[in-house]
Automatic annotation (TrEMBL):
One of its GO terms (molecular function) is DNA-binding transcription factor activity. InterPro entries: AraC-bd, AraC_XylS_family_regulators, Homeodomain-like_sf, HTH-like, HTH_AraC. Keywords: DNA-binding, Transcription, Transcription regulation. Gene3D superfamilies: Homeodomain-like. It comes from the Bacteria. This is AraC-like DNA-binding protein. SMART domains: HTH_ARAC. The keyword Thylakoid does not apply. It comes from Aureimonas pseudogalii. Residues 174-276 form the HTH araC/xylS-type domain. Pfam families: AraC_binding (PF02311), HTH_18 (PF12833).
Amino acid sequence: MSNALRVAQGTFGRVALLDMDRPLVRHAHPHCHVLLKVEGADTKFWVRDDLVPLTSESAVLVNAWESHAYAHDPRRPPTIILALYIEPRWLAEFRPNWTASGRPGFFAEAVGTITPRIRALADTMARTMVSEPEAQHLHEILLSDLMIAVIERFTPWRDSAVSLRDLGRGLSVDRRIRAVAARIDEDPGAVGHIDDLITATTVSRAQFYRLFEASFGVSPRVYLNAARLERAVRAVSDSDASLSVIGESLGFSVPSHFSRFFHDHAGSSPSVFRAVTRCTRDLETPR
């Protein structure tokens, strides 16, 4: 079963070292998302409608709110993947126009050939997460070097800084759709059905879906699931609430449904994810 080997979290977002032997459902993240193979079989991801390879020589590059899915082949051995979920505000500390990493089009292509430096940095990051899980400051230094190398390799930030700044100013979102997104972000567990959101906007169902996807690039259901996942990750990592209580707060009346949702979106069971993050936190706490 796929599970997290290590998870590092901070102002940068999070980095997960995942041992993957099963597919993930189509989903999205509000992050700049980079996937690098560390060990095991070559594999593939769906990014929007393209099936792209993840190998020792290539990275999969997913823009914020870009739908994607892991397409594991059950006939092949597992793959250890370094999955980076990076906050645009953290990247903006390096270059102001890197705030555009939170918008569509930051990565022009969904896959690219990595440099020997990116390969070495990814391997070092993965090894350090395993051997020194408590070294949060070192993790952030290594991640800084890795993300700078990735962005310099795969985005035209030097040549098109003005267009990236324009992109970073955001998209024009219909006020009704903005209100719906704010409602989801505030309490994703309180959203029972998408139809309830549609009713509140006074627009037709077809228009609602059209406006929502034009604004965020994903369907309302994918957006809602992303909000649920981010809330779940924080609760599983930081709170002492039982997994059943966390699941219920997010709208899952059956604990197994919450566990399946978490595993299908995060690549790990919530219990293992909690154990890994708790282990790291305990190591960081002075005795």
